[in-house]
Amino acid sequence: MSDETASTASTILIVRLACVSVILAAISPLTAETARLECTADAWVALASHGSAKLNGLGRDLTLNGYKRVLLLNFRTTNIAGWKLQDACLMLHLRSGKPPFRLDVGIQLESWTESETMLHFATPKRLLSFSATALPEGWFEVKLAPQFAESLAAGRGFGLVVAERGASLERVFDSRETVQFAPYLVVDGIQIGMR
Known about the structure:
The chain is an alpha+beta fold. It contains two helices and twelve strands; from the N terminus they run αβββββββββαβββ.
């Protein structure tokens, strides 16, 4: 074998090995990542019978009372763009009231800001019920369907609506203004798209 033929064969072998390495890297199992999504806006909404609602978004309290007072929560989702989520968990800190057992959650379809005082608001028809699990020091975990966080990351909503079906007791959760007790979302997923 001539030096030129050996050199060509070596180059072809190196190129083939590089291609195999790229293919193996592409098909190797992706590892799951966890992200904590910061609450960027929160408010409680006092619903009126005529479809308007009074927004209360600048205080330290988030007051929940059945479907008469519901919560609006929005989160920073830029760090999970392109993820396929496996789990999503809403974290809330209860300041006063009895612990909830279940909370109803849906996607808020109309834009809103914390500083608004009135809002044309209709509780979404499709709130899904999820169990609420008490954790130490007043925290509650609400395991959600991951599609909720995926919808927010894809721009198909303006946050979450949280209500409590059939409840007549008022519960007060801490808002993001309390900083250390601010609501947040924890998600687990696999990055499959570009960020």
